[in-house]
Every structure is written in structure tokens, then in C-alpha cells.
Specification:
It is a single chain. The chain has 475 residues and is of the alpha/beta class. 42% of the residues lie in helices and 9% in strands. It is built from 19 helices and 11 strands. The strands form 3 sheets. The protein has a 5-stranded parallel beta sheet, with helices on both faces. The longest helix has 25 residues.
């Protein structure tokens, strides 16, 4: 039984997809139907249908066109797909292991320049060299960065989707399109025994010159490209597991149309008490333990609602997590993780908890060791889970975004001002000022703070420092 029922060529404008389609259609085994899901037309400009399916019919039911291409093509049917084509078709094709994936790429600078020249000349295909129109591209740095970002985003999506579904693809570069052996290898990948003796030669290369000869402001282009991190050398590695939305931890006011989306080891209790005080009640009366359905019902039934969260400085947050979840043996202590940190990671904390012998120096040493553990933990180098109490706030917010984004992100040192303004906006002009969080015990961060701790935190939580603009901690 053949492995595939149909194929899709994932490409972009000016990557050579027309030439690849011509090569595929040179085989009797295959029939490629152009850009079948281009929003502006169906298959090719000025065409009205593919195998009897009109553009209007495709818009109403993209799966019908895919089924038609699969069952009524001459040989194995397929189509070309670009990043801005119908995403409904993308979802169908990528999830289907019976769909062969062909991924065509080209040097993005080359494809961008080719696109600019085609825009200038209006010539998108060339079959007769005598009719070739000539022009030079003008490089636009901002436009190019946007161009390359779209390409990379789509390529990463394709790669991750194939990984998650256990599929593979046949990868082609622009230069492969004139390689007869590679094209015959593609036919073999698609399950055909047919082999070509020669490639289609109707389409001609439109702009065979070097980039320097094709770009009017080549010096500007060179300077701009020097500032683009092509290999992502400055990327902050991220091995932290993705987090869930944590909807049950969200809190809504009794009457106040406010949704508090807490971040663990932040000023949770203080914000809860402030939110409860708006309606003259206690924090126990606030609505929590929601699920996604109840949250959406509350949002639908509460017009004008606002949602917010509060960030804490990464070093202060790590210190709170250490004091309340690891050092202490009281309520909220992560007992099993505490045991592992003491026994396996040799965290220098007393088994029964802090006593009179546990002084400021011991606390600095223990907290430093905890930060060193966090560095390994957040980089996926330990067997201990990345707990919500010390996960990066960036990851926590990304998890929240799967269901609901806070429309206001505050910093702890600014919440007195901004929460008062928020309360006023939703009809509570006389809101009680929020309490400052109490100092950590048995020692406050100010008691042990130094440049070494700050440098460790900045290394561990680089994502948060960069994303939220945190500077050095201030008492």
C-alpha cells in the first residue's frame, strides 16, 4: 500500500516553487494544482476552479478541495502552500500522516531581493529570456526583518508539528531544483518508481546575478545584515518546561469586576486582602478554584471587567520561595523537595528548621546554594520539578495566555499607585491602600543582599530581567 495519498509543497514566494511544481508535473505520477489555498485565487491567477471545485466552494469547505485533489487528480495530487494561505487547510494537511510533506527553502536574502525585483518589474515567471525585464531591488531593513521573522516562524511551526506527530518531510533548497537526481529522489520519497531523464526547462532563472548586482543600495544592505543575528547567537537558551494556565489559582472579586491572576511567591495574600476589602469582606469570601468554563462565564457576565497580575523582583521572589517553601517546616513547605535538596543536593539547611544557631551568615550560604540549585533546575539539569514558586515569571505568563492574558501587569513596588487607579476605574474610588508584603523570615533579603546574589539571580532569571526590565534589587 502506498505510504501517501497526496502531497503538499510548503514554500514561500520567490523560493522556486513554480519550478518545483513544473518538475513534479513532468512526472506522469504526480499532478500539482498550484496555490490551491491562496486567499486571492484558487490554484493560479485567473483560474476559477480546481477539478470542479470553485473558490467559493473551497471557502465554504477546504476539506472538500483536499479530498478532491486526493481522489480525482491524475496520479498523486498535491498543491503548494505558503504561510499566509488558508490555515484550515494547513491544519488538515499537517495532521494527516497520509499527506507527504515537501519543504522548500531558499536563502532569505535571495528570496527577498527576488520578491522586490518582481514587484518592480511585474514579472513573476520567465519562460523566454528575451522577454526578461530588468530592475534593481532597494533593500529595506525593517521590511526584511519582518520578512525573515515570518519565514522563521512558519518553519519552526512546521518542524514542531512534524516532531509532535512523528512525521518527517522531504527538504529541498532552491539550488536542488536543477538537480535531476534529487528530483528523482523526491519521486522515490513520494512512492513512485518513475524516473525522469531530464528536468523541465521551460522556466528560466530570472535574476542570475550576484546580490551586489541586484541591489541598488547594497552597502546599506550589507550594514543592516551585519546587525541581524542570523544564527540567533544572542538567544537566551530556554529549557524550562511549558506551564499550564493555572486557572484554579485565579481570584475574582465578590462584586468588584476584577480578576487577579497570581504568580506564586509574589504578593498574593496582600492583593487578595486588598481585593476583598473593596467589597468589605475577607479574602476567604473571594471566588477562586475556577475552571475554564466558569472563568469564561464570569468574563461573559461581567462587562467592563479587568484582569491583572503582579510581578516581584526575581531575586526577592526566589528568596521568598526559599524561606516559605524550603527553609521553613511550616504550612506550605514543599516537604519532599526539601528532603531531596538536603539529602541529594546538600543544601545546608537544618533538618528541623532554623534555630538559634542559624545566623545571618548561614542564611546567606544556604540561599546561595538554593540559587545554584535553581540555575540547574530551570535549565533542565535536575530531576526535581520546576515548581510554580520559582518558575520564571515569563513562563507563568505564557501559561496564563493559553486561556486568558492579564490586561494589566504591575510590579510590586508600583502596585500601591496602580491598584488604586484600577479600583477607581471599576467604580471603587475610595479603595483601601494595599499593605506592603511583610519581610521574609528568619532573615529579610536586605539582611544578606550583596552583588553575588544579584549576579546569580540575573543569570538564573535572565529571561525575566530582559522581558520586564528588572534592574538590581532595592530594599
Amino acid at each position: 500500500m502506498p505510504q501517501f495519498d497526496y502531497f503538499v509543497v510548503f514554500a514561500e514566494m520567490r523560493t522556486g516553487s513554480n519550478l518545483l511544481e513544473a518538475n513534479l508535473n513532468a512526472f506522469e505520477s504526480f499532478e500539482c494544482h498550484g496555490e490551491a489555498f491562496n486567499p486571492a485565487f484558487i490554484g493560479y491567477p485567473n483560474r476559477t476552479e480546481i477539478l470542479g471545485i470553485t473558490q467559493a466552494m473551497r471557502e465554504g469547505d477546504p476539506a472538500r478541495l483536499i479530498d478532491t485533489i486526493k481522489t480525482q487528480s491524475t496520479g498523486m495530487g498535491g498543491f503548494r502552500f505558503f504561510h499566509d494561505h488558508d490555515l484550515r487547510a494547513l491544519e488538515i494537511a499537517t495532521a494527516d500522516p497520509r499527506c507527504a510533506k515537501i519543504i522548500l527553502t531558499r536563502n532569505p536574502a535571495e528570496s527577498y531581493v527576488s520578491w522586490k525585483i518582481a514587484q518592480e518589474t511585474g514579472q513573476w515567471k520567465l519562460t523566454n529570456v528575451k522577454r526578461r525585464k530588468e530592475a534593481k531591488a532597494r533593500f529595506d531593513a525593517a521590511e526584511f526583518e519582518d520578512h525573515i521573522a515570518r519565514l522563521q516562524t512558519f518553519q519552526v511551526f512546521l518542524m514542531n508539528t512534524l516532531q509532535k506527530t512523528g512525521q518527517t518531510a522531504f527538504y529541498l533548497d532552491y539550488e536542488d531544483l536543477n538537480n535531476l537526481e534529487v528530483m528523482n529522489g523526491l519521486a522515490r520519497f513520494l512512492g513512485s518508481d518513475e524516473r525522469l531523464e531530464a528536468l523541465d526547462d521551460k522556466l528560466k532563472i530570472q535574476n542570475p546575478q550576484t546580490l551586489e548586482d541586484k541591489v541598488a543600495n547594497f552597502d546599506e544592505m550589507t550594514a543592516a545584515l551585519a546587525g541581524i543575528d542570523r544564527f540567533n547567537l544572542t538567544r537566551t537558551p530556554n529549557f524550562e518546561p511549558r506551564r499550564g494556565a493555572a486557572v484554579p489559582a485565579h481570584v475574582v472579586g465578590v462584586k468588584a469586576p476584577l480578576l487577579f491572576m497570581p504568580i506564586r511567591s509574589g504578593p498574593e495574600d496582600e492583593v487578595r486582602r486588598w481585593l476583598a476589602a473593596l467589597d468589605g469582606t475577607t479574602h476567604d469570601a473571594l471566588y477562586t478554584n475556577l475552571n475554564q468554563k466558569l472563568l469564561r462565564q464570569w468574563q461573559h457576565g461581567t462587562p467592563g471587567h479587568r484582569s491583572f497580575t503582579v510581578l516581584r523582583h526575581p531575586l526577592a521572589r526566589a528568596h521568598t520561595a526559599f524561606c516559605t517553601r524550603i527553609l521553613s517546616r511550616g504550612p506550605g513547605c514543599l516537604g519532599e523537595i526539601r528532603r531531596i535538596l538536603r539529602n541529594f543536593h546538600k543544601l545546608p539547611i537544618p533538618g528541623p528548621g532554623p534555630d538559634e544557631t542559624y545566623d545571618r551568615r548561614a542564611h546567606h550560604t544556604a540561599f546561595t546554594a538554593f540559587l545554584q540549585f535553581l540555575k540547574a533546575n530551570l535549565r533542565g539539569q535536575t530531576s526535581v520539578r520546576v515548581d510554580a514558586n520559582w518558575a520564571t515569571q515569563s513562563a507563568v505568563l505564557q501559561g496564563m495566555a493559553q486561556v486568558c492574558l492579564p490586561d494589566l501587569i504591575l510590579r510590586e513596588d508600583e502596585m500601591q499607585l496602580h491598584l488604586g487607579a484600577l479600583a477607581k476605574q471599576v467604580g471603587y474610588p475610595g479603595a483601601t491602600p494595599i499593605e506592603a508584603a511583610p519581610k521574609d523570615t528568619p532573615f529579610a533579603l536586605a539582611d544578606i543582599y550583596d552583588d553575588t546574589l544579584e549576579a546569580l539571580a540575573a543569570d538564573i532569571y535572565q529571561r525575566d530581567y530582559e522581558a520586564f526590565g528588572f534592574g538590581a534589587w532595592k530594599a
